[in-house]
Write a structure and sequence with these properties.
single chain; mainly alpha; three-stranded antiparallel β-sheet; 6 helices; 66% helix; 4% strand
């Protein structure tokens, strides 16, 4: 038994007549493929029909499709609902990133404002102000 025959059996196309009608070839061609092997495109088609995505390419090795999900090699899966929700999730993630960035900028502006206030206070007190402030802290007067 070659791969073509096994894949046909797995997908419900055991009958050469049914397979020939599906592929648009003669029954004789199907019988020849059973003996000598089918073209790669036909093998890939039947792998897809068998829900095995490895026939698409190396990146898809180990992936398969069940009734309601695409399953990866580690048994991680994605459902049609997850795929449909992706644009919403992506926009929500972008909104949260923007909010986090805004908070970071606000905090940065606040710190800059405080630093500027400290500089203004120190310049108003004179050049010995930092020394005076540290002495006041040590004596507990601040």
């Amino acid at each position: 038994m070659n791969e073509f025959y096994c894949l046909r059996a797995k997908t419900g196309y055991q009958c050469p007549k049914k397979t020939a009608a599906f592929l648009g070839v003669s029954v004789r061609t199907v019988r020849n493929w059973e003996r000598s092997g089918a073209p790669l495109a036909v093998i890939r088609l039947f792998r897809l029909l068998a829900r095995d995505l490895g026939g698409i390419g190396r990146d898809w090795e180990g992936f398969f499709i069940t009734e309601d999900r695409l399953v990866g090699p580690g048994r991680a899966y994605i459902t049609p609902g997850m795929i449909r929700a992706f644009p919403y999730l992506e926009s929500e993630l972008e909104r949260r990133r923007a909010a986090d960035l805004e908070r970071w900028h606000r905090k940065k502006r606040w710190r800059a404002w405080l630093d500027e206030g400290r500089r203004l206070c120190l310049s108003a007190l004179g050049s010995d102000a930092p020394a005076q402030i540290s002495q006041d802290k040590e004596s507990g007067q601040v």
